[in-house]
Amino acid sequence: xxxxxxxxxxxxxxxxxxxxxxxxxxxxxxxxxxxxxxxxxxxxxxxxxxxxxxxxxxxxxxxxxxxxxxxxxxxxxxxxxxxxxxxxxxxxxxxxxxxxxxxxxxxxxxxxxxxxxxxxxxxxxxxxxxxxxxxxxxxxxxxxxxxxxxxxxxxxxxxxxxxxxxxxxxxxxxxxxxxxxxxxxxxxxxxxxxxxxxxxxxxxxxxxxxxxxxxxxxxxxxxxxxxxxxxxxxxxxxxxxxxxxxxxxxxxxxxxxxxxxxxxxxxxxxxxxxxxxxxxxxxxxxxxxxxxxxxxxxxxxxxxxxxxxxxxxxxxxxxxxxxxxxxxxxxxxxxxxxxxxxxxxxxxxxxxxxxxxxxxxxxxxxxxxxxxxxxxxxxxxxxxxxxxxxxxxxxxxxxxxxxxxxxxxxxxxxxxxxxxxxxxxxxxxxxxxxxxxxxxxxxxxxxxxxxxxxxxxxxxxxxxxxxxxxxxxxxxxxxxxxxxxxxxxxxxxxxxxxxxxxxxxx
Length: 506
Fold this sequence. Notes:
Elements: H1 12-15, E1 24-25, E2 29-35, E3 41-45, H2 49-52, H3 56-59, H4 70-79, E4 88-94, E5 97-106, E6 109-115, H5 123-143, H6 147-162, E7 166-172, E8 178-185, E9 196-197, H7 204-212, E10 215-218, E11 226-229, H8 252-260, E12 265-273, E13 276-285, H9 293-339, H10 342-347, H11 353-357, E14 361-366, E15 369-374, H12 379-392, E16 398-400, H13 403-406, H14 414-417, E17 419-426, E18 431-437, E19 442-447, E20 454-456, E21 463-465, E22 471-476, H15 485-504
Antiparallel strand pairs: 1-11, 2-3, 2-6, 3-11, 4-5, 5-6, 7-8, 7-13, 8-9, 10-12, 12-13, 14-15, 14-18, 16-17, 17-18, 19-22, 20-21
């Protein structure tokens, strides 16, 4: 299989399902929707009676003040004043017990998610116990010297802190397939370390929700959904948007997916890089597992620590790469201005473009001549390649990691030149610098056959996830190592330098 077929396993169908408008919740919490101005309850989940002693139908249109104290009303209004967008935890006293709730604003409403298990007393002692658990985790993650090491430590520490049977950490690639980098699990469970899962397993609309909601918790996939009353939200005249709600219901296909994995409870927490979704921490448990808000907050805290650590490591690696690249670049520029020899400075000096771009071969078309160094395609093929580039009318550097996908004849020499970096120096005179990278044959270990990621029933509307997550291998050919941003930036600098040099030295 070549790069054209590889990795395109996202799903437009799965990505179009409006999971934020599912209009039911999981029963480990109670949902209240309150009008901001009047503080009237306009919508509730149908499981209110155990907490409030009042049915859903009898709570709607009542004032919130009929159920909680004036102090709690003031606290709610103060913490969710105009302009506050963050979700905040609060404590309410109901039926003589204290309950944790998460409060946030949505349009002209307060959305209140109340845990239906009492939080108990002794918050200070409980905080100390929890903090003691995560202190070592924080220190060990901070001590990691690579992304892989940080993920490995984080998976092991989170398993100890949370008690889940399995904790995995995986990174998304550019096509949103997920690669499992680290795993800590109980004996007897199926290992997915090194596996890749197709993008459709977490479709776009599900990925987008992690940008507004740090985690997704399902204590029991066999839960009975709790409906909202009334079904249509009076404030919006439509289903209420539950994007920011932790207790939001879960699509049937995802619950079936967990069942096929023999998982009954799950917790997934985001990892961000520069504000974008980089990966997820995925926790699985073979039986139902209840966690309170405190432990969920621990996951949110540690996901932030892991995100910061990965960003720090990446920036350090990038800085090291930039320093190395600029040292080579400066050596070449110094040689150019000393000798005035463009081909000699780029291709045959102490440091060459092969060093600068980690390339295996290069061809320079300059001054009606061609010069080459390293391993390059035969002349009859590069002449046609040059013609193809001319038709592209390049105005900037062109990076390609799978040349045969865009240029058919590249299949004839993909073993030595699957990757191309083309720098247009003067397109009117067909002056280019072409850099090549060889093919890097990859074996992808998929978690189940990605071609069978979705099964449709005869009605072509009802669908199911794949049943097996056993190793399914795919060989990918015709692809080189990708060209990094650091290399693309220095390529533009080199291109501009040569253009300016030629203008000043005709």
